[in-house]
Design brief:
Layout: H1 13-37, E1 42-48, H2 54-64, E2 70-73, H3 80-83, H4 89-93, E3 101-105, H5 110-117, H6 123-142, E4 146-153, H7 156-168, H8 178-185, H9 187-201, E5 208-212, H10 216-239, H11 271-289, H12 311-319, H13 337-340, H14 346-349
Parallel strand pairs: 1-3, 1-4, 2-3, 4-5
Helix pairs in contact: 1-10, 5-9
């Protein structure tokens, strides 16, 4: 896979300097059009090897484009709060709203790859992480987001040469860290894991675009052109009439049986028995939440139903058995304008 990326792409300085002004102007124009229409969000993932120019390219994008409508997220090692949440929680909270561009330099692939290379996880753990990533990306695309994934690559020889060149120059020595050298020593392990991840997560709706990272001018123009074309193409689709739904309609049951209509509404419990059982189960619930293993899990209870059907009463009986520091009751109202600019589940993930 990666051999095909090593084609020795190079762009002459004269060509680069001639094309950059028009590319930058076009990027600003399409970014403004996107911001004004607020039609969809753009999510850009920048992954790949150390020394392949990921950081420099992201910095250049922020220089070329309007900083008011582009957000860059480094997404380093997760905090204690983030470790207590599902893996995707911190990424979900950082998603850009419609009309904006979000750049992730360090994404939902970074830590699964690092943990696998370092031997902290096995192939099964990596597989689960990739499945979570694909589910998230499909959800984003289904919600209307434009997802662009770049993978920056360098051969082992070129990566080593770049690190040595930077380290020799007193003016650039600071760019090479101890972490860079550690990663270089296990280059082959990284490459093997990268191959697996790219092969399994390059999907039709979110393919990986492999960029050869040796020549900065080629790298910059390639990334800029891809982003420009992707947003333009998507804007053109947005201007067309909405496609008709091709899914077959839901048919009523042939036997006319419906779940709600079939419920037995005559069930009852006398007051004495109710109080006895309520006290019993509240006590059991309290003891369960104080069990040492409970700190390793979380519970979400969702209540839906008609007004005056008893949702509030049920919630009060549950919370009455719990320590107030261990639960949160969240009423869900109509989404705000900020929430409407995000995927449907965004406001729930943020809680």
């Amino acid at each position: 896979m990666f051999e095909s990326a090593e084609l020795g792409h190079k762009i002459k300085k004269s060509v680069y300097e001639k094309e950059v002004p028009s590319l930058r102007e076009a990027l600003l124009d399409v970014q403004l059009e996107l911001a004004e229409s607020a039609a969809f969000p753009v999510v850009i993932l920048v992954g790949g090897l150390d020394g392949a120019g990921r950081g420099a390219t992201v910095n250049l994008l922020n220089e070329w484009m309007d900083p008011r409508h582009i957000q860059t997220h480094g997404m380093g090692e997760p905090s204690d709060e983030e470790l207590d949440r599902p893996m995707m929680w911190r990424f979900w909270r950082a998603l850009p709203p419609k009309g904006n561009i979000g750049v992730f330099l360090g994404s939902w692939y970074t830590w699964p790859i690092l943990n696998r290379v370092r031997g902290r996880t096995d192939d099964a753990d990596l597989e689960q992480s990739m499945e979570r990533a694909k589910r998230l990306e499909k959800m984003l695309v289904d919600e209307g987001a434009l997802l662009i994934k770049f993978w920056f690559h360098l051969s082992k020889e070129k990566q080593g040469k770049r690190l040595k060149t930077l380290a020799k120059n007193p003016l650039t020595r600071w760019k090479v860290t101890e972490r860079d050298w550690k990663h270089f020593k296990v280059y082959d392990k990284f490459r093997a894991v990268h191959e697996i991840v790219i092969r399994h997560t390059s999907t039709a709706e979110a393919p990986w675009l492999i960029v050869e990272g040796e020549d900065a001018r080629y790298r910059n123009l390639t990334v800029g052109r891809v982003i420009l074309k992707a947003i333009r193409d998507r804007m053109a689709l947005e201007s067309e009439a909405a496609p008709k739904v091709l899914a077959p309609p839901l048919l009523p049951p042939s036997d006319e049986l419906h779940l709600l209509n079939s419920l037995d509404m005559d069930q009852s419990l006398n007051k004495a028995s109710y109080k006895t059982k309520l006290t019993k189960y509240q006590g059991q619930l309290n003891l369960l939440t104080r069990h040492p293993k409970f700190k390793y899990m979380s519970v979400i209870a969702v209540f839906e139903g008609n007004d005056a059907a008893g949702k509030g009463g049920c919630i009060r009986r549950i919370t009455g058995a719990l320590d107030a520091r261990m639960y949160q009751v969240i009423p869900i109202a109509a989404p705000s304008e900020e929430e409407r600019a995000q995927p449907y589940l965004w406001r729930f993930w943020r809680l």
